[in-house]
Amino acid sequence: MAQQSRTSAARQWCGSVFFAGLAALAGCSTAPTHPSLAGAQLPELVPVRDFVTSLEATGHHRVSPDGTRLAWMGVQGLRPAIWVRTVGRDDARAYPIRARGFRWTADSQYLAATVDSTGDENAHIYAVAVGRPGAAWVDLTPFDKTASSIVQTVEGGADLMVTSNQRDKKVFDLHRVDPRTGAHTVVATNPGNVSSWVVDRQGGLRARVAVADGQATLQRPDAKAPGGWANAAQWDRFDFVRLLELDADAAHVWAISGRGRDKAALVRMRLADGLETVVYASPEVDLDNALISSRTHQPLVAYSLPDYPHRQVFDAALRKRLDALAGGTPAEVFITSMDQSERTMTAVVATDRGERSYLLPAKGAPELLGENRLSLLRAKLAATQPIASTARDGLPLHGYLTLPEGVEARKLPLVLLVHGGPWIRDRWSAGASNRSLQQFLANRGYAVLQINYRGSSGYGRAFMEKAIGEFAGRMHDDLVDGVRWAVQQGLADPARVAIYGASYGGYSALVGATFTPETFACAIDVVGMSHLALTLEKAPAYWEMGMIGWHRYVGDPSKPEDRRTMEAKSPLFKVGPKTSPLLIMHGVNDVRVKLEQSELMVQALRKAGRPVDYVTFRGDGHGNQRWPNNLAMYRKTEDFLAQCLGGRSGGVDYYQLGAWAF
């Protein structure tokens, strides 16, 4: 009812005399002009504000280890907050903070939150004693220009194992932090080549992974070895290996590993020599992740995504509980927290139309705890379906298609939505990699196509490595071939196709506008790279250890031949008289892709006399956290695409009037 009341109020506002002045400047909602949409029975136009903020939406529900409390993310008044209540009671209390995530300490007495308040990626760890009257958040890592993250909570107390680059901005040392006092104990100093630390639940340092040139080496503490560490196993630097949890004997570690195989599998790795035993693998795709029991130290669930989500549940009783949540339909069902007994847990059911969070008590039926913004709109949203196509060189491609409701799927205006990374992938569940834009764009009347181009993760090492040297090459061909597939299927109007993306996706949008303007009527770039060499030269210091991967796929700008190639693949140097109209948006605090990248591109476009709309977001960086910035981003997007492709726009959203205050 509250949602309907706000929508009704918005309509009344838009028709009022007061709003008429604003309408004269930017207009209220506009009807679609594309022939396929004009006169169609499109669903209700969802206001932009409902996609970017909500007073009712909640998420990230977590049960405390002792099973007595629940914590979740929501808002208090108009401010982001983490809420806490006793299980089975209505005694919720808010702790205002804008956090990227949080976790309970092992003793259930503290919440520890990761906070990047300005978008510059210098994340701090805050803690609050939830059982203490009047307690407030305390910054446990109050260091300037320092990034910190939580590795592990320590059983039997409140301590946290934290990595921090306070000492050396290029690498991360391992600290043990006491939230009761704020005291730090340096457990291990990074010699300059350690990419990860393996810590047990008692806070003991059991192993580390060191990298050098093309090799990764698993090392174990050894007082007799040089430097106190002995080599245990080696693997190719570009084999995917993610260490998860130690086994009960502390002599083995569970891992998602692609060593010696194309698809990453769940393995049990012996720490002494790296010997692996495969426990579960998918023949189609890499495993995404696995949940390991803290009680039995055995795998509970393994997750993968061949098209629709798949979960392999190793315990029959648990499988029954999770299947009941899915209700016999495709869904990603994630266990997000468990108490110490592992009988009470929280879970998220994620679909193409949002996420719902549940409490699964030890006894009794699941309890719906809350929904995210998109799920609150689910009745007004469109279905997303997996698709398969073939690139021009014969490579099989996979992706997702979202079609607008209420209109025939024929010669529609289309938005090619490109994921970032590039070493991630688009997923079926909404919001995973593109902020639920597919649903927003479909509601505006567009067909939305997402292609997992070569280089995307999840489809094996061979598929990923087909992207080596293919920036603005075959990676882009895959995207263009996806558009051709949609045209051949009769779904898309070839004259009304836009390309939209953020980060690498933003780079792809710039490539589309400059390299292949005949395919794209317009393009939207968010925090995208325009000059590849400059991007790597001005990358954050903590990228240094991973720079070998960028050099392998894109080039080393310190080498003249590589630099020439990188400049030839940079959209900045391809701006010309046929460049497609562009909307460029960028967070001013972005440390990954500096604002300079967009500034240079805008200058080049204006010098060439090409149309460009340029928007910057203050207080945000490589992706927006603040809803006023997201409101501006969505509003600019719908107006730009309405003019370019002929979809509809909601016009001025009355939330814009107060957005300045946030």
TrEMBL record:
Pfam family, one: Peptidase_S9
Entry annotated with the keyword Glycosyltransferase: no
Domain Peptidase S9 prolyl oligopeptidase catalytic intervals: 436-647
Presence of the UniProt keyword Hydrolase in the record: yes
An example molecular function term from Gene Ontology annotations: serine-type endopeptidase activity
InterPro entries named among the record's database cross-references: 6-blade_b-propeller_TolB-like, AB_hydrolase_fold, Peptidase_S9_cat
Span of the signal peptide: 1-26
Any GO BP annotation: proteolysis
Entry keyword set: Hydrolase, Signal
Name listed for the protein in its UniProt record: S9 family peptidase
